[in-house]
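Name: Acetyltransferase (GNAT) family protein
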Amino acid sequence: MKELNLVLMTEEEFHIFIESEVSRYAESLCKYKGLQREEALKKAHFETQRLLPHGIKTPFHIFYRCCNWTEDVGTLWIYANEKKKQAFIYQITIFEGYQRKGYGKATLREIEKMLRKQKIDTLSLNVFYENQRAYHLYKEMGFKTVSMTMKKEL
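Structure predicted for Acetyltransferase (GNAT) family protein:
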Protein backbone atom coordinates (compact mmCIF):
# COMPACT_ATOMS: atom_id res chain seq x y z
CA MET A 1 0.00 0.00 0.00
CA LYS A 2 1.32 3.44 -0.98
CA GLU A 3 2.11 5.95 1.75
CA LEU A 4 0.48 9.30 1.10
CA ASN A 5 -0.12 12.53 2.99
CA LEU A 6 -2.71 15.17 2.27
CA VAL A 7 -1.09 18.58 2.82
CA LEU A 8 -3.20 21.75 2.84
CA MET A 9 -2.37 24.09 -0.04
CA THR A 10 -0.98 27.51 0.69
CA GLU A 11 -2.64 30.59 -0.81
CA GLU A 12 0.08 30.74 -3.49
CA GLU A 13 -0.30 27.05 -4.35
CA PHE A 14 -4.08 27.51 -4.49
CA HIS A 15 -3.78 30.31 -7.09
CA ILE A 16 -1.57 28.14 -9.31
CA PHE A 17 -3.91 25.19 -8.83
CA ILE A 18 -7.10 27.12 -9.58
CA GLU A 19 -5.74 28.64 -12.81
CA SER A 20 -4.81 25.16 -13.96
CA GLU A 21 -8.21 23.85 -12.86
CA VAL A 22 -10.09 26.57 -14.77
CA SER A 23 -8.12 25.70 -17.90
CA ARG A 24 -8.76 21.96 -17.43
CA TYR A 25 -12.46 22.58 -16.85
CA ALA A 26 -12.66 24.75 -19.98
CA GLU A 27 -11.05 21.92 -22.00
CA SER A 28 -13.70 19.52 -20.67
CA LEU A 29 -16.45 21.97 -21.63
CA CYS A 30 -15.06 22.13 -25.15
CA LYS A 31 -14.73 18.37 -25.43
CA TYR A 32 -17.92 17.21 -23.70
CA LYS A 33 -20.28 20.17 -24.16
CA GLY A 34 -19.12 21.37 -27.58
CA LEU A 35 -18.34 24.92 -26.45
CA GLN A 36 -15.82 27.12 -28.27
CA ARG A 37 -12.61 27.82 -26.31
CA GLU A 38 -13.43 31.45 -25.44
CA GLU A 39 -16.96 30.60 -24.31
CA ALA A 40 -15.68 27.61 -22.32
CA LEU A 41 -13.05 29.72 -20.52
CA LYS A 42 -15.66 32.33 -19.67
CA LYS A 43 -18.02 29.67 -18.28
CA ALA A 44 -15.19 27.95 -16.38
CA HIS A 45 -14.16 31.24 -14.73
CA PHE A 46 -17.78 32.07 -13.89
CA GLU A 47 -18.52 28.64 -12.38
CA THR A 48 -15.29 28.62 -10.38
CA GLN A 49 -16.06 32.09 -8.97
CA ARG A 50 -19.60 30.95 -8.16
CA LEU A 51 -18.33 27.87 -6.29
CA LEU A 52 -15.44 29.68 -4.60
CA PRO A 53 -16.52 33.27 -3.91
CA HIS A 54 -13.88 33.56 -1.17
CA GLY A 55 -11.16 31.59 -2.95
CA ILE A 56 -9.24 29.23 -0.69
CA LYS A 57 -11.20 30.58 2.29
CA THR A 58 -14.62 29.52 0.92
CA PRO A 59 -16.35 27.55 3.69
CA PHE A 60 -16.35 23.76 3.40
CA HIS A 61 -13.97 23.72 0.38
CA ILE A 62 -10.55 22.27 1.15
CA PHE A 63 -7.54 22.06 -1.17
CA TYR A 64 -4.71 19.58 -0.73
CA ARG A 65 -1.45 18.57 -2.27
CA CYS A 66 -1.17 14.77 -2.38
CA CYS A 67 2.39 13.92 -1.32
CA ASN A 68 4.51 10.85 -0.96
CA TRP A 69 7.54 11.19 1.31
CA THR A 70 9.59 13.21 -1.18
CA GLU A 71 7.32 15.02 -3.65
CA ASP A 72 3.85 16.03 -4.77
CA VAL A 73 2.05 13.30 -6.70
CA GLY A 74 -1.30 15.02 -7.19
CA THR A 75 -3.93 17.51 -6.06
CA LEU A 76 -7.33 17.31 -4.41
CA TRP A 77 -10.29 19.68 -4.08
CA ILE A 78 -13.00 18.46 -1.75
CA TYR A 79 -16.16 19.92 -0.25
CA ALA A 80 -16.83 18.56 3.24
CA ASN A 81 -19.85 19.72 5.26
CA GLU A 82 -19.88 18.15 8.72
CA LYS A 83 -23.34 19.52 9.55
CA LYS A 84 -24.88 17.82 6.47
CA LYS A 85 -22.55 14.81 6.92
CA GLN A 86 -21.76 14.97 3.19
CA ALA A 87 -18.63 15.42 1.13
CA PHE A 88 -18.03 15.83 -2.58
CA ILE A 89 -14.78 15.44 -4.53
CA TYR A 90 -14.64 18.28 -7.04
CA GLN A 91 -11.25 17.33 -8.36
CA ILE A 92 -8.72 14.61 -7.77
CA THR A 93 -5.67 14.44 -9.99
CA ILE A 94 -2.71 12.12 -9.81
CA PHE A 95 0.09 13.55 -11.93
CA GLU A 96 0.97 11.59 -15.05
CA GLY A 97 4.26 10.12 -13.84
CA TYR A 98 2.56 8.72 -10.73
CA GLN A 99 -0.56 7.21 -12.27
CA ARG A 100 -1.15 3.45 -12.07
CA LYS A 101 1.15 3.22 -9.05
CA GLY A 102 -1.47 3.11 -6.29
CA TYR A 103 -1.60 6.82 -5.49
CA GLY A 104 -5.25 7.18 -6.54
CA LYS A 105 -6.30 4.45 -4.11
CA ALA A 106 -4.06 5.87 -1.41
CA THR A 107 -5.60 9.33 -1.88
CA LEU A 108 -9.13 7.93 -1.64
CA ARG A 109 -8.20 5.98 1.51
CA GLU A 110 -6.81 9.15 3.11
CA ILE A 111 -9.95 11.08 2.18
CA GLU A 112 -12.15 8.39 3.71
CA LYS A 113 -10.07 8.30 6.89
CA MET A 114 -10.29 12.09 7.22
CA LEU A 115 -14.06 12.16 6.57
CA ARG A 116 -14.79 9.37 9.06
CA LYS A 117 -13.05 11.42 11.78
CA GLN A 118 -15.40 14.29 10.87
CA LYS A 119 -18.41 11.92 11.15
CA ILE A 120 -19.22 12.47 7.46
CA ASP A 121 -21.06 9.46 6.08
CA THR A 122 -21.54 10.22 2.35
CA LEU A 123 -18.85 10.88 -0.26
CA SER A 124 -19.84 11.65 -3.85
CA LEU A 125 -18.10 12.59 -7.08
CA ASN A 126 -18.69 12.90 -10.82
CA VAL A 127 -16.71 11.07 -13.46
CA PHE A 128 -16.97 11.30 -17.25
CA TYR A 129 -17.76 8.01 -18.95
CA GLU A 130 -14.71 8.38 -21.20
CA ASN A 131 -12.47 8.34 -18.13
CA GLN A 132 -12.71 4.58 -17.73
CA ARG A 133 -9.55 4.28 -15.60
CA ALA A 134 -11.03 6.62 -13.00
CA TYR A 135 -14.46 5.00 -13.26
CA HIS A 136 -13.03 1.54 -12.56
CA LEU A 137 -10.89 2.87 -9.69
CA TYR A 138 -13.95 4.43 -8.05
CA LYS A 139 -15.99 1.23 -8.50
CA GLU A 140 -13.12 -0.79 -7.02
CA MET A 141 -13.06 1.60 -4.05
CA GLY A 142 -16.78 1.06 -3.38
CA PHE A 143 -18.46 3.93 -5.23
CA LYS A 144 -21.83 3.12 -6.84
CA THR A 145 -23.41 4.74 -9.89
CA VAL A 146 -26.45 6.70 -8.70
CA SER A 147 -27.34 8.72 -11.79
CA MET A 148 -26.41 8.85 -15.44
CA THR A 149 -26.60 11.53 -18.11
CA MET A 150 -26.81 10.42 -21.71
CA LYS A 151 -26.25 12.55 -24.80
CA LYS A 152 -26.82 12.25 -28.53
CA GLU A 153 -25.27 14.58 -31.09
CA LEU A 154 -27.78 15.73 -33.72
